[in-house]
Amino acid sequence: MDKLTRRRFLTLSGVTAAGALAVGATRVDWDTLMTAAADDPLDPDAAVLVVVTLYGGNDGLNTVIPAADRAYQNARPDLAYQPEDVLDLGEGLGLNPGLKGLKSLWDSQGLAIVRGVGYPEPDRSHFRSMAIWQTASPRTSVPTGWLGRWLDATGADPLRALSVEPVLPPMLAGAQTAAASLPLGGLTLPGGKLGAAFAALGAPQAGEEAWQARASRSVADLHNVVRVLGGAAHDQSGEDDPDEKRDKGASAGGSSQLAAQLDIVANLIEADVPTRVYSVSLGGFDTHSDERDTQQRLLTELDGALTPFVQRMKRTDRGRRTVVLVYSEFGRRVHANASDGTDHGTAGPVFLLGEKVRGGFYGEQPSLTDLDNDDLKQTTDFRDVYATVLSDVLGTDPGRVLDDHRGRIDGLLRT
Question: Could you tell me if residue 302 is left (phi over 0), alpha (psi between -120 and 50 degrees) or otherwise beta?
Fold first, then answer.
């Protein structure tokens, strides 16, 4: 009989796709990642970037809210928050009441808010605008993502970037290298008497030969994976809340289960997997109608996922070198529409979180009276944010990724 290794055992059991990378695939599994962590752990001095995409166009004015601004109140008579409703940040701005955890991070200098972020000549199409954000090419369509080009420029190992999403986002696709993906959905083990018998196979027994011991440890490892991942990574076999309110704002794609995605990312970071960039997402922000309740629910979900993730990261040396970047493809119009919602707009805030972040405001707050075709004027180029994280998190010359763009945001991150 062939020597039975852990990797071969799990491959034959149908749980893993060991060697997928060797044949050019980018979908990986937990076993592949754990093997990589053992064989080639991430340099302890290397920082990690976690990118959170909010699909649909999050309304920045009802996220970082100028509640005391009369122009804001006049533009949104029924949609505006009152000054007493928001979580005060200073400078006449407050966080949406769904972001209580982020407010605590702000108070401890762990949240940076970059204001008025956008790109030249804005496009209000979800797909074109998201393509611009993910490729970092506002004027010319290009076939590669900004982090895909980072992969191309710095090496050929797809495990250096990982998407924990149903599909690989364009920002992680380069010309020569695409990032790996680990979609949620995970592992399901048998239950009942069969499950108990299967689990018993993982118990060591006196006198067993070496190959039998390795096989039994593989069974134990498999059950441990399910335990660590929370039973198929917060099992998604059921649908999201069937109430129709879950469907509002969901026309522009994106994933739910953000907390589950970030839980997996935290496990991988703590395991020293050699991944420098992770991508996760939350959808549903296309709030053309009944925006206030829908957006506040989504921001509460965002807060409930991000806050414990950032707090968990503070507890380890590796986690303290992790930076979270949160963005959406555009903000919303200044004026509410007739359906108690807002239509596609332009600039909005970007959040950065983590111990490496110097908390506070960056960039100028856009004026609500000096508008461009009734839209906010961009005050910060989104590529300035990208250049800063490329340099100060990924240790890469931004010019290798962003062509001729040389802007950045000084003081945002600790190096």
Answer: alpha
Q: Which of 213-217, 325-329, 374-378, 397-401 has the lowest mean pLDDT?
A: 213-217
Q: Where are the alpha helices (DSSP H) in 166-251?
A: 192-200, 210-229
**Strands 111-118 vs 360-362: parallel, antiparallel or unpaired:** parallel
**In terms of residue numbers, what domain contains 372?**
47-184+239-259+267-400
**What percentage of the chain exceeds 70 in pLDDT?**
77
Task: Give the number of domains in the chain.
Answer: 2
Answer yes or no: do 11 and 114 share one domain.
no
Tokens of 221: 């490892």
Q: What is the dihedral of CA 349, 409, 355, 59, to 10 degrees?
A: 0
Task: Give the model's confidence band at 171: pLDDT under 50 very low, under 70 low, under 90 confident, else very high.
Answer: very high
Least reliable range by pLDDT among 137-146, 216-225, 227-236: 227-236
pLDDT digits (tens, 9 = 90+) for 131-143: 999 999 998 888 8
Distance CA 77, CA 54 (A): 26
Q: Do 178 and 301 fall within a single domain?
A: yes
Q: State how far the alpha carbon of 353 is from the alpha carbons of 108, 140, 309, 364, in Å.
A: 11, 31, 10, 19
Residues 99/363, Cβ–Cβ less than 8 Å: no
Angle, helices 291-313 vs 100-107, to 10°: value is 50
CA distance 190 to 186: 14
Helix (H) or strand (E) holding 148, with range, is: helix 146-154
pLDDT digits (tens, 9 = 90+) for 286-321: 999 999 999 999 999 999 999 999 999 999 999 999
Strand spans (E) along 203-316: 277-282
DSSP 8-state symbol, 170: G
Distance CA(360)–CA(115), nearest Å, equals 11
Cα 195 from Cα 217, distance rounded (Å): 16
Q: Which residue has the tokens 């829908």?
A: 294
Specify the pairing of strand 161-163 against strand 111-118: unpaired
Is there a domain that residue 31 lies in? yes
Q: Which pTM does this prediction carry?
A: 0.82
Q: How far is CA 224 from CA 76, 183, 229, 318, in A?
A: 52, 19, 8, 22
